[in-house]
Design brief:
Blueprint lengths: L1 E7 L10 E5 L11 E6 L2 E11 L14 E2 L8 H13 L4 H6 L15 E6 L13 H13 L1 E3 H6 L4 H8 L4 E6 L21 H16 L3 E7 L5 H14 L3 E5 L7 H11 L3 E4 L5 H12 L5 E4 L11 E7 L16 H11 L3 E6 L4 H8 L4 E5 L10 E6 H6 L8 H12 L3 E5 L8 E4 L16 E3 L4 E3 L6 E3 L12 E4 L3 H11 L5 E4 L1 H4 L4 H10 L5 E4 L12 E6 L3 H4 L6 H13 L10 E6 L5 H7 L3 H15 L6 E9 L2 H18 L6 E13 L2 E10 L3 H8 L2 H4 L3 E5 L3
Parallel strand pairs: 9-14, 9-15, 10-12, 10-13, 11-12, 13-14, 16-26, 17-24, 17-25, 23-24, 25-26
Antiparallel strand pairs: 1-2, 1-4, 3-4, 3-5, 6-7, 6-8, 18-22, 19-20, 20-21, 27-29, 27-30, 28-29
Helix pairs in contact: 1-10, 3-5, 6-7, 18-19, 19-20
Bound molecules: adenosine-5'-diphosphate (ADP) and zinc ion (2 copies).
Organism: Veillonella tobetsuensis
GO molecular function: 3'-5' DNA helicase activity; ATP binding; ATP hydrolysis activity; DNA binding; zinc ion binding
Subunit structure: Component of the replication restart primosome.
Amino acid sequence: MRVASIIINRPAKQLHKPLSYLLPEKFGDVKAGTRVLVPLGGSREEGILIGYEELLEKPNFTLRSIIDILDSDPWFTSEMMDTAKQISKYFLCSFGDALRLFTVHKTLKSYDAPKEEWLVVTAEFNIDQVSPKKRKQRELATYLIEVGGAPKSLLRAKGFSYMVIKQIGEEKGIHIEKRFKDTKTAFTELLSGEESIPLTDAQMTVYEPIKKTIDLEQHETFLLHGVTGSGKTQLYLKAAARCIGKGKTAIILVPEIILTDQIVRRFVSTFGDEVVVFHSKLTISERNNNWERIRRKDSHIIIGARSAVFAPAEDIGLIVLDEEHDTSYKQEDMIRYNAKNVALWRGKAHNCAVLLGSATPSITSYYKASEGEYKLLELPNRIFDQPMPCVQIVDMKEEMIRGNYSVFSDAMMELIQCTLADGNQMIILLNRRGYSTFVMCRDCGETIMCPHCEVAMVYHQAGEELRCHYCEHHEPIPTICPNCHSKRIKFFGSGTQKVEEELRRHFKSARIARLDQDVTKHKDVGEEILQDFRNHKYDILLGTQMVSKGHDFKDVTAVGILTADSVLNIPVYSASERAFDLLTQTSGRAGRGDKSGTVVIQTYNPLNYAIIKSKAHDYLGFYNEEIENRRALGYPPFREMIYMVVRHVKEDMAEKIAQKIVDELEQHFQSQPIDFNGPYEAGIKKIRDMYRLSIMIRGEDLDAVKDYIYNSWIFTQEGLLIDVDPI
Ligand code: ADP
Ligand code: ZN
Ligand code: ZN
């Protein structure tokens, strides 16, 4: 009997090393990548067979045997397993967790291939072919002629036996076809053939090297730096067409699917059923179907948010990351991985082109391009040279000196007025949802905090309650201060809800839509709002970051940013980069059609370089300043970072564990130029009743540190969060 290495498919860090099991002869040759059923302790668990072991001597314990084989074909290709291993070692998660990223659902239930069989009747079928004696068969045939075809399960439910169905299926003119249920995207009526629009000269220059790489089946990473509206999406369509023309699969990653319906529509309308759209709102069975379609090469293009990078494609010919700078490619909960790294690893393994596109490339990507690691491609102008929007910066301190304490500066009011008067549309960005940002007592200064987290509660008008944005806690608005019993409770700051109210008060006839997490938690509402805005059912779209990305609204001529400072002031090394991105991307929404665009940015820091460079549409100027800061301060891309948070219900325990980790690592790496900072209080001291202490590790090369952690007790420490390459 052979000895197989099995990874137990369960999210327990303790189980991340493979276990050995015997493979009984009766199962024959089982390929690596197949899922199996094994005994573990007193229960049965699903496992993934990752390979076989040479047993040099008989082990001194009894090996248990594999109970059953769950797949007829291996689910995991060797490339998928290798990539999972890389993810596990690089991002410090268990191998099982990394493998699970490639599966459809994370539970232990078996994922049967989603089959549904159909009986299809051709138009020429003649009922007299069936003898009148075969009453049931005739009845079935008559029904099929009438409806054209029906799923087997439905026919069974209608009372036709397997035998009757089988016999009718053998008749000439009728055949039984296997199809996946509900998998067709079916947008044929939309087919536009957009990919056949001739490229402009500028696009052509950029496309040539991509095409060449696809044709030669080589691996190369391209960084496509093109301003908003320069025709990047058009190039993705072209490259995808080239890729599927070679029978290969293209993976198109977009930041968040709701924000990008535009690009999805363009792909679907260009390629129809070749496209599988993968997003988080799909049911498990829809996911299953989509994955199966890719696996069987029924469709060759997958478009989706970060998890689509795990598509089970065997032959990838192109991977595109649109808006490559976007932070949503990094998963921040559960398994912390970055889809960009995964895309690059898979691209290398499949020998294919990886195309990173952005109007504001991440500082790290641009640095890599300047060092020659990526090939830089540039589209500096908008298609047909429409001008970039004109940006005005308003110093909010001066507004206050002049006595204007409202959230809208005079310039902002004027812009809204003009836009409405001209019958154009406007986007207004405010980074805070809710009504007021916090609730405070005027007499003693007490802020109402969440009892489970060290954060202020936020007032939400809908439901008239206070909500915590870090846990599910919510409570009625207090009428008296819990500290001094004063009745003078006041709401401070303003969120999207309050601004919406203000807008309605000032502009009575304006049609205003609000888009934030509170609205979009209801399925499809976000898509609907965007669609209605596109169709001019609203004049103003007000929202959080969701309004800033990817949209291409032709009639939007104005953009207002209420506080540029909310991003500038976040305590991370990349705050300026994020602010520059947000301002530039949001501004880029203005004037994409024939009309020119105007942008007003309100801020308390009008001299900040991220704001000034964004106003000037000067990416390179911003990059040059930022990269020097990073170099001087030792931040990425010059040094790597690992951020850890120790969480514990007891504050002193959290402290003890964190200190032990720092001491051990410091001791082990004392001769190397690696900084271990901490433990110090994490940005938010307590979330969901768990105290949090953080540790920051920085060094030019942290591979050895990762290796050490991976193989030590630290890796399996309960409550420890490890964030590699925090952003
Ligand atoms: P980006 O993705 O860089 O924002 P898009 O690909 O969306 O740019 O292009 C901006 C606009 O120009 C879109 O409306 C698109 O349909 C149009 N466009 C792009 N390429 C061409 C082309 N070669 N010929 C005509 N129109 C184009
Ligand atoms: Zn009080
Ligand atoms: Zn809370």
